[in-house]
Structures are given as structure tokens and as C-alpha cells.
Amino acid sequence: FWSPSDARPSNTSSLKFCAAETHWLSAAVAEVMASSIDESDQAAVAELGAAGAATELLDVPAEYFEIREDWWLQARAMDGKPVGFVLLALLKPEKYRKNGMTQGTIYYMGVLPSQRGKCHAVGLLGEAMRLLSEAACWRVFCDTSSRNEPMIKAFRTAGFEERTPWQRPVR
After folding, report:
1. Of 19, 41, 49, 59, which sees the most CB atoms within 10 A?
2. How would you write the chain as a 3-class SS string?
3. What pLDDT sits at residue 104?
4. Are residues 161 and 2 in contact, defined by beta-carbon separation less than 8 angstroms?
5. Which pLDDT score is estimated for 144?
6. How would you class 87 by CB atoms within 10 Å of its CB: exposed for 0-12, middle for 13-18, buried for 19 or more?
7. Is 111 helix (H, G, I), strand (E, B) or coil?
8. Averaged pLDDT in 10-residue chunks for the chain of 171 residues
9. Which residues, 6+ apart, have CB-to-CB distance to 161 below 8 Å?
10. Between the CA of residue 123 and those of 13, 91, 118, 148, 160, what are the distances in Å?
11. Whole-number pLDDT of residue 58
């Protein structure tokens, strides 16, 4: 979890963000899922193929999540090359509200395989935290596999608080 009262990492990212075009996003999510070390992504890709897994992931359950069109972002390096994406949402169920404020979530994010190892995940998280803080979220939830050490490191660097390890259902 992260809350707006927590410190955000200094904005040292040189990433530029824009709305993610649907076709590009589908292909990018498929590419990230196909190379993911998260067990749930691996299971979805094994069952549905990368494109099918991406399609399923991007078919957001409207009863649980509010998606703002400008919150599904593509990140580009200074040279204009795409490096990844971050998909933000608000949790709809009342149980996630506190003092009239909702909880935000990083619904999914990924760094393209060719761009990994360059600290881009921290830049993606910084933009996510900025936008969800501006939306008056009382906290931000996200998760990753307990085996995904690079993502865990990025979450720690960005100031997220860890909870007891939890595994998203694996198919």
C-alpha cells in the first residue's frame, strides 16, 4: 500500500507519458505477460496464449473498477521509444472507501522486456502515485508475485508498504 501522506520518490524519471492507444496497449500487455515471472501471468499465458491473456486482463470488470480514459498510460523514453505502460483504476466497492475518499489501484503495469533493468518501473510508479494522489485516493493498492524481485524492489524504492505475502488466484 501507499498513501498520499507517504513520501513519493523524487521525480528523477525522464519518462514522458501519453494516453495508451488500444492496439499498442494490447500488444504491449501481451509482450509483458509473455515474459512475466508472476505466476498468475504465466498461468494465463499458458492457458490463453499471450494475446488472449492480454485481452482477458484488459476486459476490466466494471462492477469493481472505475477506469478513467486518461489513466491508461504509455511511457516513452526521451528518444521517443516506448518503454512500458501503467494502468490505473479506482476501486468501486464501498468497503474500499474511507472518509469519502476511494482507494486507487495500479491495475497492471509493465516494462517492455527490451527496456528492463533501467529503473523505468520506478518512473511508472511515480506517475501512478502522482495521478492517484491528485484524485484524492486515500491509499493505493498494488500487488506482484513474491518471486518478482525486480518489481518488489521498485515498490520499495517508491515507498510502498509491504503486507503479508499474498498470491492472486492462479487460474
Report:
1. 41
2. CECCCCCCCCCCCCCEEEECCHHHHHHHHHHHHHCCCCHHHHHHHHHHHHHHHHHHHHCCCCCCEECCHHHEEEEECCCCCEEEEEEEEEECCHHHCECCECEEEEEEEEECHHHCCCCHHHHHHHHHHHHHHHCCCCEEECCCCCCCHHHHHHHHHCCCCCCCCCCCCCC
3. 95
4. yes
5. 87
6. buried
7. strand
8. 57 84 98 95 97 97 92 95 97 93 95 94 92 91 88 87 71 73
9. 1, 2, 6
10. 5, 23, 10, 18, 14
11. 97
Q: What is the pLDDT of residue 164?
A: 73
Q: Where are the alpha helices (DSSP H) in 10-119?
A: 22-34, 39-58
pLDDT at site 145: 85
Q: Tell me the whole-structure pTM to 2 decimals.
A: 0.89
Is 50:30 a contact under the CB 8 Å cutoff? Answer: yes
Say what the pLDDT of residue 1 is. Answer: 60
Helix axes 149-157, 120-134, angle to 10 degrees: 50
Residue type (1 letter), 56? E
Q: What is the DSSP letter of 96?
A: G
